[in-house]
Amino acid sequence: VPVDVDLDTYCVDPAAVEAAITSRTKVIMPVHMAGQFADMDALDKLAADAGVALLQDAAHAHGAQWQGRRAGALGSVAAFSFQNGKLMTAGEGGAVVFPDEELRERAFLVHSCGRPRTDRDYLHGTTGSNYRMGEFTAAVLRAQLSRLDEQIAVREQRWPLLSRLLAEIPGVVPQATDPRTDRNPHYM
């Protein structure tokens, strides 16, 4: 169920999320738009109160930080994209990070043809496919990871000027920064 966004940050509006939650809701999926985190404090509370999962779309948030914690380390599942236009790119593909071992193992089964990591007899625990990253893709991403912090520092340094210049264009409203996002890669 799509909900409206906060007009300042372009991220999902927690009040709109709360209004949309029903007994059929299974997950809340905020997008950290252009590197700006959705209000994770409010969304964590909403998810806990409703007893639903929180699944972060962190495709724009490589290297971003919310109150000192990096995207992917906020206590819920987070998905990253390495599609050709992202901060770190491998052409396509992505990565998913998990807050606990149980979820990680369940995902491992799906990504590894349904086979547990200890299986040597092709005893599939569930259906799955081959979603494993190849060595070449990993090497490309590893090189990009080594320069990500430097690239983010440059973007953060240049954002105030870009934001001011964009604001001078009639009808253009630059994305606001929530101060709890203490590191914004300014994707896009």
UniProtKB/TrEMBL annotation:
Gene3D superfamilies the UniProt entry points to: Aspartate Aminotransferase, domain 1, Type I PLP-dependent aspartate aminotransferase-like (Major domain)
Pfam families, per database record: DegT_DnrJ_EryC1
Cofactor: pyridoxal 5'-phosphate
GO molecular function, one term: transaminase activity
GO biological process: polysaccharide biosynthetic process
Origin: domain of life: Bacteria
Stated name of the protein: AHBA synthase
Lineage: Bacteria, Bacillati, Actinomycetota, Actinomycetes, Micromonosporales
